[in-house]
Structure formats: structure tokens, C-alpha cells
Amino acid sequence: MTDIRDTVILGSGCAGLTAAIYTARAGLNPLVLEGHEPGGQLSITTLVENFPGWPDGIQGPELIENMKKQAARFGATYQLAHLTRVELGAHPIKLHTSSGEIHTRTLIVASGASARWLNLPSEQALIGHGVSSCATCDGFFFRGKDIAVVGGGDSAMEEALFLTRFATKVTLLHRRENFRASKIMLDRAMAHPNIELRTNTTVKEVLGVEEKDVRGVLLQDVKSGEESELKISGLFLGIGHEPNAKMFAGMMDLDDDGYIRTTGNVFTTLNGTVIPGVYACGDVQDRRYRQAITAAGSGCMAALEAEKYLEERGH
């Protein structure tokens, strides 16, 4: 007979590991399924300067490793496995993974969201070395420098406007003639003296791979095919995020962009009705803030609710 676990946590980023710390300290012996990107987005971040308690900052992978060790000290265990199918209506909940079937009384979904990238080899090689998908996280490092933002929606406008606090100049690159951004956001960007908008432009290559530091971008005009170089010190991707929640379509309420809808901060629903024992936290349900500290906070909430749920049922 398959053992029934008290709680399983999907994801090992800030939200999942905080949930692991709290549930482990409560004696629930959580199992953390690390997923396809162990450590989440922090694992590909360099210096984190805005996480409380680290006055000199801390490297993203080190912060994740510290949280992982902290949870393990209280009894959390980890498994490198992928979720292939889930039966939320079953009691206990049944998880079908690449490593076998797991039964659990509660499930905390902290599977995060993946930034959309251009998927250029040069771009991927320079993530954390001048290429970023988070202006709030990394904008400070580009004070007094010229940078570029890729995108044409509200996310790109927000990134560009925020980055003007630090950068000397922000060039916003968009592959189409027209922007998808709302009129108010586009008007703000167009009116800003430090933002230049370039349409019908794609990034062919990020320059600086050998130096391990962004030195510029090779651009191509979509209409003429003409190539040109733009000297910049940083490249930010403002083309959105993809929540890792597709496997829950039809089993949970998702919004139009695929984020898990929650009520009461972390409670999941189906057709507006709360799903017993199933919680969501972190970037998989947070489309607004997407910060390490807010992910950690929601991970704490999910863990406390799972503990309360189990206690009320005598487990």
C-alpha cells in the first residue's frame, strides 16, 4: 500500500521552500518535488539586495541553498521529479510523477512562473551577467548606464519606466509597428525624455559573451533587413512570464493568462468553490509583485493553512 503523506510541495523556489520550512517545523515531514527548474528564478539570479536580513546582499543560488538546508534541518525531504498528472478530486490527492505515484492529504502548489526569453544562445549565456527579466530585482546595478528593454506590452512599458530611475537612457525595442500596451502606459513611455522607442526591430544577438558581460545588441530592422549594433550595458526582457500551471487546467480556476486564481490569499478554487487541502503560493498565482519576499510570505500562508486543515481533521 502506498504511504499517505501529510503534505507535498510542488516547486523549490522561495515560496515552496518557505512552505517547506513551516510545514517541516510543524512536524508534517513535507516532500518537496523540485520540478524542472530547481530553485526557481532565484537560481539564475546573481546578487539579491532586497531580501530582508542580508545588508550586503546575497547571491540568489546561495539564498535558495540556505533555505533548502533550513527546511531539511526540520525534516523536509526533496525529490527531483516532474508532475505528469494529478487527481485533485481523490482523497487522498494522487500525484503521478516521473518517479512514481504519491498520495498526500494536502498539496501546496508553488510551481512558479518562467520568464519568457528570446531563446538566443547569446542571451541565455548572459542571464545574470547583464541580461535580466526583472527590472525591480536588477535595475539598481545599471545606474548611469544605457540599457534596452524588449517588448511591446504593459510589462515592457512598466520595466522601461522603472529603469529610468537608474539608467541614463532606456531604448525600448519592439518587433512590430504597433504596441499592445494600454494607451496610458504607452503615452507615459513616449513622453519620458530618457526613453527611446524603436519599432519593427528584433534582437539577433546579445554581444559580450566572451567578456561575460553585456556590451551591446545586434539588431535587425524587420522591414528592410538592415542590421545595426546598439551599445548597451544591460538587456531586460519585458515580454511577460508563463505561469507553470498548465497541468491544472480544468481542475483549478485559472485566469486568462494561466495564473492560478486564489481566494483568501492561497486557497485554490474550481468554479468558485474552494478545493479542500490544495493551496497555491508564489509566482504561479501572483502576477503583480513577483518578488522573492512576497513569494516567501505566501509560502508561509499556504503552510499555515495546510497545517490548520490537517489539525482540524485529526492528522
Q: How would you characterize the overall build of this protein?
A:
The protein is α/β, with parallel strands linked by helices. It contains seven helices and 21 strands. The strands form five sheets. Strands 1, 2, 5, 6, 7, 8, 19, 20 and 21 form a nine-stranded mixed beta sheet that branches. The chain has a five-stranded parallel beta sheet with strand order 10-17-11-12-13. The chain has a three-stranded antiparallel beta sheet with strand order 14-15-16. Helix 1 (14-25) packs parallel to helix 2 (60-73). It is elongated, with a radius of gyration of 21 Å. The mean pLDDT is 93.
Compact summary:
The protein has helices spanning 14-25, 60-73, 121-125, 135-138, 154-163, 183-191, 292-312, and strands at 4-10, 31-33, 47-48, 58-59, 77-79, 83-87, 93-97, 100-109, 113-115, 131-132, 146-150, 169-173, 195-198, 201-207, 216-221, 227-230, 234-237, 241-243, 262-263, 267-270, 273-280. The protein has 315 residues and is an alpha/beta fold. The two termini are 19 Å apart.
Order of helices and strands: EHEEEHEEEEEHEHEHEHEEEEEEEEEH
Rounded to an integer in angstroms, the radius of gyration calculated over CA atoms is 21 Å
Assembly type of the chains comes to: single chain
Strand content: 25-35%
In helices, the fraction of residues equals 10-25%
**Count of DSSP H/I helices:** 7
User: Helices and strands: which structural class?
Assistant: alpha/beta
What coarse outline follows from CA principal-axis ratios? elongated
Termini separation comes to: 19 Å
Number of DSSP strands?
Answer: 21
Regions with little confidence, pLDDT below 50 for 5+ residues:
none
